[in-house]
Specification:
Layout: H1 2-21, H2 29-43, E1 50-51, H3 53-69, H4 82-88, E2 95-102, H5 107-115, H6 118-124, E3 131-137, E4 149-156
Parallel strand pairs: 1-3
Antiparallel strand pairs: 2-4, 3-4
Helix pairs in contact: 2-5, 3-4
């Protein structure tokens, strides 16, 4: 009888423990990008970036605009600047920044690439940035690049 109870307990633990260990694990590629950026911030003594819905929606708007108008640039063909996407979603900010990337196969690779680019690294490690929104599109907006395309919009209030 004791053996059956032990086996039942062991089986329950084998099922429950792995799930509890990964309860806070990222569930999307966007969350995985944020988690990778936050590991870099932690390594440099900075507070983690918090996911912000307005910035996430702004990043989605941004990537959809690039796809629809077939460009890959911080300024849209009509002159729209990066901060406008956040303003359109009602995000009130003191400071704002944007990282773009294309062609990196995984979230870890894109953050690695950004960390090896001074301007992109400055956004990831920006002490005034508190929040972020990330959007990813599997394809590329222009034929000369391959996808996926990553957009990260950083904000500080």
């Amino acid at each position: 009888m004791k053996r059956k109870k032990f086996m039942a307990l062991a089986a329950a633990l084998a099922i429950a423990v792995p799930l509890s260990l990964f309860a806070d694990a990222p569930t999307s590629n966007e969350e995985t990008v944020i988690a990778a950026m936050n590991r870099e911030r932690a390594a440099h003594g900075l507070k983690p970036l918090r996911l912000n819905l307005e910035l996430a929606l702004a990043a989605e708007d941004r990537v959809h605009d690039m796809m629809a108008k077939h460009y890959f640039n911080h300024v849209a063909p009509d002159g729209t600047q990066p901060f406008v996407w956040a303003e359109r979603r009602g995000y009130n900010y003191r400071t704002i920044g944007e990282n773009l990337a294309t062609g990196y196969r995984t979230p870890a690779e894109v953050v690695y690439g950004w960390m090896h680019s001074p301007a992109h690294r400055a956004n990831i490690l920006g002490p005034d940035f508190e929040e972020v929104g990330v959007a990813i599109e599997d394809a590329s907006p222009v034929a000369s690049f391959r996808g996926p395309v990553y957009v990260a919009i950083y904000g500080g209030r």
